[in-house]
Amino acid sequence: MRRRFSYLLVLVLAAPLVCVWLTSPSGSSAPARAADPAPAADEFGKVAGPFLTKHCTSCHGEKAKKGDLVLTVYRDEASVLKDRKRWEAAVKMVQTGEMPPSTRRRPDPAEAAAFLKTVRGVFERHDRTAKRDPGHVTVRRLNRTEYNNTIRDLVGVDFNAAEDFPADDVGYGFDNIGDVLSLSPLLFERYLAAAEAVVERAVLTEQPPPPKRPVTPNFFQPRAGRPDNGVRSLFLKDDALSTYTLHLIDDGDYIVRVRAAALPDGAAPVRFAVLDNDTEIKTFEVKTATPFAQGKPPPPFEVRLPLKKGEHVIKVKLLDGFPPREKLGPPKEQPDESAKKEAKPMRGGFPRLPGLHVRLIEVEGPLDYWPETHRRVMTCAPGKTRPEQTREILTRFASKAFRRPATADEIDRLVKLVDGATARGDKWESAIQLALQAVLVSPKFLFRVELDDRPDSKDAHPIDDYALAARLSYFLWNTMPDDELFALAAKKQLAANLDAQVKRMLADPKAKTLCDSFAAQWLQLRNLSTMTPDPKLFPNFTERLRAAMLKETELFFEAVVKEDRSVLDLIDADFTFLNGVLAKHYGVDGVYGDRFRRVPLTDGKRGGVLTQASILTVTSNPTRTSPVKRGKWVMEQILGTPPPEPPPDVPELPADEKAQLTGSLRQRMEQHRANPNCAVCHEQMDAMGFAFENFDAVGAFRARDGNFPIDPSGSLPGGLRFKGPGELKTILKGKKDLFGRCLAEKMLTYALGRGLEYYDRPAVDAIVAALARNDYRFSTLVGAIVKSDPFRLRRGKQ
Fold it and tell me: What is 693-751 written as a DSSP string?
C-alpha cells in the first residue's frame, strides 16, 4: 500500500512540478536591457580612444586580433556598454598591470589612471540612470546539503537522507546555482524513497516502550574501587553511590529502579535511601540477605516520581552501618585465639554491621513516551477532535516545509489524503504519514519558490518577509528559517531587523555551513579528498594528515567568522590551528596529540590560507608542485582576475627523472613558456606560483628542489617585486579593493544562487565600499550582501 501510494504521488505531483520548472524565470530567455542613456559628453572618445590607439590596438586591431579581440570597433560609450562584460575584464587587466604586457611600452601611471576613470565613468553614468534591476529570481531546487539540513530542522531526523541522491551540478564554482540544479527522473525516485524513510523514522504508528538508562557498578560514582563480582558495596553510614549526570530531555513520570541486596551475614535489616540531586525520594529496607550469585536475583526496589527535563544525579545512600570513620575511635584490643573463633567476622577491629550490595541503578521514562521527532510533528492543542488535530498537524508541517503559510486549498488537499487513507482502513497515524510524504515530494518543498505579492508591478520591489527569511537562512545556514525568523516574517518585521538577525545567525553553530559549503567551494577544499600525492615521493602523506589539513583551514575560516575579523586575514595572519600530526608536518614544536589548538605564527613561513597545506596540496600535481595551478588559483580565488583558457595544443611539461636533471622546475618552466603567446598569461600567473615553491606538493617546507636551490622571488606587472611568499602576501593585502571585490562577487553569487550580470555591478560596488569603510570586517560583508538590491528585491514585470 505504501509503495503504491508513493507512485500515485508521482502522478499527482509531477504535473505541477513540471509547470513550476517550465515557468521558472531561469528557463526563460535573457531579460531585455534597459535602453542605454545618451551620454552628456562622450569622454570615452576623448580619453580612452587615444589610450587604446597608443597601447592596445597594435595587438588587438584589425590585423593582429590577438585573443580574438578587436578594440577598434569601440569608438564611443554606447559601443562599450553593449559589450560590458568584456570591458569589465579589460578594466581589471589594466588595473592589475597585466595589460599592456611587459614586452610593450608601459603607460604612465597617470595615463592608466585616466583611462580607468573614464571607462568606469561610462559604467557609473549608465548605472545611475538605468532602470533599477535586481535580476531574475531563479526557482532553485534544494541541493543535497540544503535538503539534509532542512529535513533535520523540519522533523528532527538527523541522518543523511540525501545520501543516495545524484551529485549536484556546479555552476560559477558553487553547487547551489539554480540554473544547473536540474531534476532528473532518477532524482525524483530518490525523493520518493527519502520522503518515505524520513516520515517512517520521524512519525510512529505505535507507542514505543519508555527508554531506560541503566548505570552498572563500573560507572558508579565515586569510581574508587573495583566492582566485586559485579556489585559495589556500602558499609559505612552515609556512604553513597550515584549515577553519572543523566540528561533527561522531557518532563514526565519516571521510575527509578535499584537492584540491591544486604550482605549475606548482615546482623540486622539494612535501610537505604534513593536521592535525586541530593533530595531524598524514598527510603527502603532490605530485610533478607539474598546474594546475587545464588538462585533468583532479588526483585528491584522501585519508586515512581515526576522529573523535570535537565540534569539529574540519582544516589543510593546507606542509612545503617558503621558510623563515619572519624567517630569510630581507636580499635579494641585483639582477643586471644579462642575468643577469635567465637567472634563474628571483624572489619577494622569491629564486629561487622549491616551493609549493602548494589548492582544497578536505572531510570526509566518518561512513561508516556513518544520520541521528540514524533511529538514535534504530532503534538496538538488539547481538547481538539480528530479532524481538527489532522488539520492542525498538516497546517503546521506544510507551512514550515513550504517556508511560508500554507493556503487553505493546499491543506484541504492534504486532509483529503488522510481521510481517504483512513476510509480504506489505515490507522490515523499511518494516514498522517502519507500526507507528510506528499508534502516532502511537493515542488513547494523541493524548490525554493518565492511568490510575488506584486506580480503586476513593472518596477523592482522588495520580496516578502517569508521569502527574505528563506534567502537569509539558506545563505547563512543552508537550511530553512527557524522559529524566530518565521515569527518576524509573520509580523512583517524581518526587513527592519536584518542587522540584529545577521549578528544572531552568524553566532549560531549552524553558521558553520559558511565554512563547510561556501568556503570549501570558494577555496576548492573539496578537491582535497580526491588528491593522490605519489606515496613514494611523499610517504608522510597519510589520511590523518589529509584530515588535519582540511581541519586547519576550516577552523581558521571559522575564527574569521566568529571573531568578526578582517577578511584580509584570509590572505595573511599571525595564527593558525594545529594538532600534533600537522605541527610535525609544518616543523612546529610543542604541539602534540589529536586535539587542535590555536598556535601563534612568528617565523613568517605560514599565515593565511595561501600557505596552508590544504590549499598547497589541491594546487599541486601528484608528483610535483605546480606554479601554474598555484598562480592561477591566486588570480581566480583571491584577485578575481582569472587568466584565459590555454590553447589546446600546449604540450605538457616533462616530469620524468631525466627532465629533472636539466634544471629546477622554475628553469624548465621558463624554457617551456618561451613562446611569446604563452608568456602574456604566464608572466603574472607563474610569478605568483613560484612564490610558493618553498612548499612541496603536500605543503611541507623545503629549501631545495632536488639538487637545485629554490628561488621564490619574482615580479608582477607594474614593477612590484617580492622575495618570497611573505612579501607576496603583503602585496596581495595591499590590493584590498581587488580582493574585497573578488570575495564580494563570490559570496554574492553563492547567496543569490546565480551568476552575476552587468546590472549587479552597483550592488558589488556598494558592498566593496562598505567593506572599506568598516575595516573589511566579515560581518560587514554579510550585512552588505543581505541589504543589497539583488538579495532583497525582485525584478518588476518586463
Answer: TTB-TTS-B-SEETTEE----EEETTTEEESSHHHHHHHHHH-HHHHHHHHHHHHHHHH
Q: Are 750 and 176 in contact (CB under 8 A)?
A: yes
Q: Which residues 6+ apart lie within 8 Å of 191 measured at CB? A: 440, 441, 446
Q: Is 407 left (phi over 0), alpha (psi -120 to 50) or beta?
A: beta
- For residues 79 and 68, what is the distance between their CA atoms, to the nearest angstrom? 17
* C-alpha span between 190 and 166 (Å, rounded): 9
Please calculate the CA angle 662-663-664 and round it to the nearest 5 degrees. Answer: 145
Q: pLDDT confidence of 38, banded at 50, 70, 90?
A: very low
Sequence-separated (6 or more) residues with CB below 8 Å from residue 502: 472, 476, 779, 782, 783, 786
Cα–Cα distance, 320 to 792 (Å, whole number): 72
Radius of gyration for the chain, computed over Cα atoms and rounded to the nearest angstrom: 35
Average model confidence (pLDDT) for the chain? Answer: 85
| Residues 158-182: b if buried by 16+ CB within 10 A, e if exposed | eeebbeebeebeebbebbbbbbbbe
Per-residue pLDDT tens digits for 417-451 = 999 999 999 999 999 999 999 999 999 999 999 99
**Residue 308: partners with Cβ closer than 8 Å, 6 or more residues away:** 248, 251
C-alpha cell at 382: 488539547
Nearest of 313, 296, 302, 292 to residue 356 by alpha carbon: 292
666 grid coordinates: 622554475
> pLDDT band for position 531 (50/70/90)?
very high
Residue 787 C-beta-side C-alpha neighbours within 13 Å = 17
CA distance 589 to 215: 42
Q: For the segment 552-562, what is each residue's pLDDT rounded down to a tens digit?
A: 999 999 999 99
Closest CA to 449 of 32, 797, 25, 145: 25
Amino acid at 408: A
Grid-cell match 597519510, residue found: 542
- What pTM, to 2 d.p., does this model score? 0.80
Around Cβ 76, how many Cβ atoms within 10 Å?
15
Task: Look at residue 383 and give its three-state secondary structure.
Answer: coil
Q: What is the helix (H) or strand (E) element at residue 271, kind and residue range? A: strand 270-276
Cα 738 to chain centroid distance, Å, stands at 26
Query: How many CB atoms are closer than 10 A to CB 300?
Result: 15
Handedness of CA 426, 428, 432, 433 (dihedral sign): negative
